[in-house]
Amino acid sequence: MKNREPWYQSENPTRVARGASWRIALWVVGVLVLAGLITGGIWVVKVSTSDLRGAGDTVAKVNSRDNRIFAQEHFFTLYNQLLAYDQQLDQAAADKAEHPGDQYYATNYSGMVKICIDARNQYNADANKVTQAKWRDATLPFQIDQLDPKTDCHETTQETPR
Length: 162
What we know:
Among the domains are: 14-48; 60-135. The longest helix has 36 residues, at 13-48. It has 162 residues and is an all-alpha fold. Helix content is 66%, strand content 0%. It starts with 12 loop residues before the first helix and ends in a 36-residue tail after the last helix. Helix 3 (65-98) runs antiparallel to helix 4.
């Protein structure tokens, strides 16, 4: 066996320092490789379980108390707003008929039709959303019927009294 002497007593102290620096460098590289393997392993596990975790997170969000309350209130608000817009179209149509050729009333009527259609489309879109459709109240329609006179976004024609 070779008798080891402290670096400060060595005839060539740079050889001793060089040997120690290689060992330190190997340890640093080893720790970095190990950290990379652990990080890569964590990433692989996250990616491979993301579908299952995402499905579970969706179920939790759909069934959450806040989502149930929001969805039920939201559908009632949308539906009643749509009914109100459709009813307001009757007044806008009457105003337009009373002022033929007046661009203000024509524009107002056209805007009311577009707002009503937008509300109908918003209700139908939200009725298909994963987080909201389940909690729509049973008394509300699944989708808004464009041919239903209450929600068709056209003025209601009324017969003139004779």
